[in-house]
Design goal:
The chain is mainly α. The chain is built from 14 helices and no strands.
């Protein structure tokens, strides 16, 4: 079993911070200095994310102790003291701001906005229907902006649009997965689920998912053949990466409904060989074409 501190920091979630690298990849800025700066911002986001996870667990200690699964979390179980948790959260937050500030003021401001937004999310905003998912998406958008504006790269409107659509899709899929857990349990036990789920219903979220999934595929497809893309990269070959995106979206929906995945995006991605191969192939083909 992993050390309690490691479990508290949730390093498996760091894969989400890979959105930081989208800017350099699609701007074809692969020089050593830019990639090193992107790596620094990635590490800063990892520290910020872990700080937020610790703060969430500190605020939910009592509720987690009454939860059949979450009571085994390090803080709720007593494996890690609250005092240690506070020291970790504050230390990681300071490190994240300092590391990002070493790259640029933009990067530091975006990391600061991410931390502030997630504190607000944890305290109350996560209980506001639809806004809760938009805030999840906003966290990903801040990563994209940190990997563009934070590195001195002007973000493409297409990159921002595609990023918004796919992260909204993942956010609504997360809520659908949580509703499926409630349905499997046979009752909406408030102690086992998020309070905001009372405002959702399966049909509503399925519509939200269908819209955002379609917009993800459509916006990415249009990006690959847009005049801006053809002019910037001098190739129309990016259209050959569209099937990877379509399959990835369909596979994610399949896993959500048939295998009970989706409530933890990072774990779903890293535990499914099909998704892993699809993402790896998409990255490899994209880099090959852009190179």
């Amino acid at each position: 079993m992993k050390h309690p501190i490691i479990r508290l920091l949730r390093p498996h979630q760091y894969i989400k911070n890979g959105f930081v690298f989208l800017g350099p990849i699609f701007a074809v800025q692969w020089d050593g200095a830019t990639l090193l700066s992107a790596l620094t911002v990635f590490i800063a986001f990892c520290a910020a994310a872990s700080a937020i996870y610790v703060l969430n667990d500190l605020s939910d200690i009592e509720a987690d102790r009454a939860h059949p699964r979450k009571r085994d979390r390090p803080l709720a179980s007593g494996e890690v003291t609250a005092a240690t948790g506070w020291r970790l959260a504050i230390g990681l937050g300071i490190f994240a701001l300092a590391a990002s500030a070493s790259i640029s003021l933009w990067a530091a401001a975006l990391i600061g906005a991410y931390i502030a937004m997630n504190i607000g999310y944890s305290l109350s905003w996560k209980h506001i229907v639809v806004i809760d998912v938009f805030l999840i998406s906003a966290g990903f958008m801040l990563r994209i902006l940190a990997g563009t504006k934070g590195l001195g790269i002007e973000p493409s409107p297409w990159l921002l649009l595609c990023g918004l659509m796919v992260t909204l899709f993942l956010g609504f899929a997360k809520r659908r997965a949580e509703l499926l857990m409630v349905e499997d349990a046979g009752k909406a036990d408030a102690g086992l689920t998020r309070r905001v789920l009372d405002a959702y219903n399966p049909a509503m979220i399925e519509q939200f998912m269908a819209i955002t999934a379609a917009c993800t595929i459509l916006s990415y497809s249009l990006y690959t053949v847009s005049a801006e893309t053809l002019e910037r990269h001098a190739t129309g070959a990016l259209i050959y990466t569209v099937p990877f995106v379509v399959y990835g979206v369909f596979r994610y929906i399949f896993l959500l409904h048939r295998h009970g995945h989706g409530d933890d995006t990072a774990r779903t991605l890293t535990s499914d060989p099909h998704l892993l191969v699809t993402v790896a192939a998409w990255i490899a083909v994209t880099v090959y074409i852009l190179a």
